[in-house]
């Protein structure tokens, strides 16, 4: 049994996508990041960076005590290792998958996250910041579109954790992009969206957050964007 500590964000969706694809038994625990649940001591004990998602595996492969894992990329790698699925078996394929997983973790996610912040959540519109991150989003879309040309998925025929990591972050309308400018990316998006496991994963999100919204109250913005080191001491 996997306990998944989760909210309905791109990083949260990555993990439900894997768990549904692998038909793993799991329990969802909602961590409402707009209300500050991520700063509660019980959650910090398994996710010291006070970010979702995090998991606790109550049946680790070594048969020992439960293992907790935080950071979405680390969770995907852990689950792929546990199940032996959604990552190539050969060394070179594994290395290439890790490259694209790290590309998402270090580039696609953070840059698109800044796009969201300055275009949707910042208390004042800063044209330079919005332009900078919309353009960087465009560049990253181009990188992924080029990679997907002639490939079903990032690793070719095989659907992997690299695809699961990247998919939830691609949101053209929200990110100021024209998806028709990226035909291979558009095809890939549609193919993953149509997967039954993807549909089940996003349906589970409604159990936790039935009415998601892109607007934030002043109090929520303070919780999400106004914290310093005192929240983790």
UniProtKB/TrEMBL annotation:
GST C-terminal domain boundaries: 90-212
Segments of this protein annotated with the region Disordered: 201-233
GO molecular-function terms, A-Z: oxidoreductase activity
Family membership noted in the UniProt record: Belongs to the GST superfamily.
Name assigned to this protein: Disulfide-bond oxidoreductase YfcG
A Pfam family of this chain: GST_C
Keywords from the named record: Oxidoreductase
Top-level class of the enzyme under EC nomenclature: oxidoreductase
EC number: 1.8.4.-
UniProt-listed InterPro entries: Glutathione-S-Trfase_C-like (IPR010987), Glutathione-S-Trfase_C_sf (IPR036282), Glutathione_S-Trfase (IPR040079), Glutathione_S-Trfase_N (IPR004045), GST_C (IPR004046), Thioredoxin-like_sf (IPR036249)
CDD domains recorded: GST_C_YfcG_like (cd10291), GST_N_Ure2p_like (cd03048)
Domain GST N-terminal per the UniProt entry, residue ranges: 1-87
């Amino acid at each position: 049994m996997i306990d998944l500590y989760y909210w309905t964000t791109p990083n949260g969706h990555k993990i439900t996508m894997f768990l549904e694809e692998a038909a793993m038994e799991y329990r969802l625990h909602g961590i409402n990041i707009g209300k500050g649940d991520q700063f509660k001591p019980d959650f910090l004990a398994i996710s010291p960076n006070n970010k979702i998602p995090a998991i606790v595996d109550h049946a680790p492969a070594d048969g020992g005590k439960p293992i907790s894992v935080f950071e979405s990329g680390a969770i995907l790698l852990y689950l792929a290792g546990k199940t032996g699925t959604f990552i190539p078996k050969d060394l070179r394929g594994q290395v290439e998958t890790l490259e694209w997983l790290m590309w998402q973790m270090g580039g696609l996610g953070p840059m698109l996250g800044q796009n969201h912040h300055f275009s949707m959540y910042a208390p004042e519109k800063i044209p330079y910041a919005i332009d900078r991150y919309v353009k960087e989003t465009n560049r990253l879309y181009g990188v992924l579109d080029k990679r997907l040309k002639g490939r079903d998925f990032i690793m070719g025929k095989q659907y992997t954790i690299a695809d699961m990591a990247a998919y939830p972050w691609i949101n053209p309308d929200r990110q100021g992009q024209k998806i028709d400018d990226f035909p291979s990316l558009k095809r890939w998006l549609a193919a993953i969206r149509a997967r039954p496991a993807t549909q089940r994963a996003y349906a589970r999100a409604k159990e936790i957050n039935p009415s998601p919204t892109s607007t934030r109250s002043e109090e929520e913005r303070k919780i999400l964007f106004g914290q310093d080191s005192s929240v983790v001491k």
